[in-house]
Amino acid sequence: MKKIIFICLFIVSQFVFSTPIDTHLLNVSVQGLNLLITPKKATNYPLAGIKILSSGYTVSGCTKKANGYCRFKINKGKTSQLTLSRPGRVRYIICLNAVNHLQCQNYVSTATGSSASKIYIGSTGSGGTGYVTYCPLINGNIDTDQCKLASTALTGTSPYYLSINKSAKKIYITESFGSTVRTCSLNSQGAIVAPCSDFAGFTTTSGVYYNPKFNKLYVANTIQNNVSVCTLNANGTIASCSQKTGFLTPSDITINDAGTRIYVSNKNDGSIAICNLNNAGSITTCPYSTAPNSFNNPDGVVINSLTNKIYIANNNSDAISTCSLAANGSINLASCSLSNPIFNFPRGLALNAAEKKLYVAESILNGVIAVCNLSPAGSIGTCTKLVDGFVFPTGLTLN
Asked: What is the pLDDT of residues 340-381, one digit of tens each?
């Protein structure tokens, strides 16, 4: 009888303490991509942990453990901050004791995206006089009075496209008609600083994109008609690369927020290649690529996950296409609308979804950066053009 009672008590205890409960002991709020967690009681929880239940999401600001939880400390009277990988509705569990899976609670939050604080602009310049400019963003608008030039000794003299690895505090820079990708460090203020390193083996580099889901870097090799998929070292530098063929003068690259699908603009035939990424981050099949001549010399591409739209820069028609994405990631060509031809050779694009802004680089001698307002549905509205001495600006990225 005692043995039976003991077993029953054990089962009950497991149910009470291991099963997620609904009476929350924490105040959890969302600001952009950040989860702000404060204890309701004046108690410390040094072994707290979070487990993401929704697929396609990760969390940072904590230490990942083998049991699937990401550990962090909750201190009385203080707010702990964790950061989700992308916008959207996400389900997760927080345990006050993640080691023993005790006092666990279910949560659902909607992340709206974070507002970037800086924009980085790669200008190829003329005759090897290019540079990278980085400027503060205030409510999504570029503060041109506070722009700074990075040392060309660090960034090179023909920077082209850019991408940032936030966790490793690195910026990746391709060079116009180059064969290397440069990796530079970012300090706590977002300035580009040493050390920088070059990785060779590319051919006429163009677009570059960092995918945090797999910690991979993707680089378009325009003349070779392929995309390099690069593995990174722990410090964010490039370790090795392999190539995926089958593209036609690939120019720019973007990846969906889940990190599972890559979009590549093919300038040669006016199409967008839409390819799946496997569990290792390698490019596999491209079942939903658009037909040739769907776009007019497409270059910059960027996805707005909040409105399920993709924006494509058409060089030859001086306009931006805004298209809806289907559930399978394909582009609904019938939905595409063309912005008024107010741009002049648009190339690089960047999106600030939280502030409803689209940034467009006009790659001409006296180049400008256009800052365009977006409607709640993602349509392009009015644009403000900024002239700040840019010479053939091309690549844009936000941090």
From this structure: 778 999 999 999 988 899 999 999 888 899 999 999 999 999
pLDDT band, residue 138 (cuts 50/70/90): confident
Q: Which residues contact 295 (CB under 8 A, 6 or more apart)?
A: 265, 270, 271, 272, 312, 314, 321
Q: Is the peptide bond before 136 cis (omega within 30 degrees of 0)?
A: no
Tokens 């992308």 belong to 86
Q: What is the pLDDT at residue 225?
A: 97
115: pLDDT confidence band, cut at 50, 70 and 90?
Answer: low
Q: Reply yes or no on whether the pLDDT at 289 is more than 60.
A: yes
The two tokens of residue 303 are 């996805």
Residue type, 351: L
Do residues 59 and 50 lie in contact, with contact meaning Cβ atoms separated by under 8 Å?
Answer: yes
For 242-251, give one letter per residue: b (16+ CB within 10 A) or e: ebbebbbbbb
d(C-alpha 240, C-alpha 104), whole Å: 41
Place of tokens 């404060």: 38
- Indicate the DSSP class of residue 277: B
Spell out the domain ranges in the chain.
Answer: 26-111, 118-398
Q: Which CATH number fits domain 118-398: 2.40.70.10, 2.40.128.120, 3.40.50.300, 2.130.10.10?
A: 2.130.10.10
Residue 17, pLDDT > 50, answer no
**pLDDT of the residue at 111:** 83
pLDDT band at 260 (very low <50, low <70, confident <90, very high): very high
pTM: 0.76
For 169-199, b where at least 16 C-beta lie within 10 A, e where not — what string? bbbbbbbbebebbbbbbbeeebebeeebbeb
- Other C-beta atoms within 10 Å of 282: how many? 14
Half-sphere exposure in the Cβ direction for 187 (13 Å, CA):
8
In degrees rounded to 5, what are phi and psi of residue 252? Answer: -120, 165
User: Which two three-digit tokens encode residue 211?
Assistant: 């995918």
CA distance 7 to 121: 65
Locate 207 and state its tokens: 């677009």
> How far is 359 from 371, CA to CA, in rounded Å?
5
Output the CA–CA distances (angstroms, integers) from residue 254 to 196, 261, 337, in the order listed: 24, 9, 20
| CATH topology (fold) of 26-111 | Immunoglobulin-like (2.60.40)
pLDDT > 70? residue 23: no
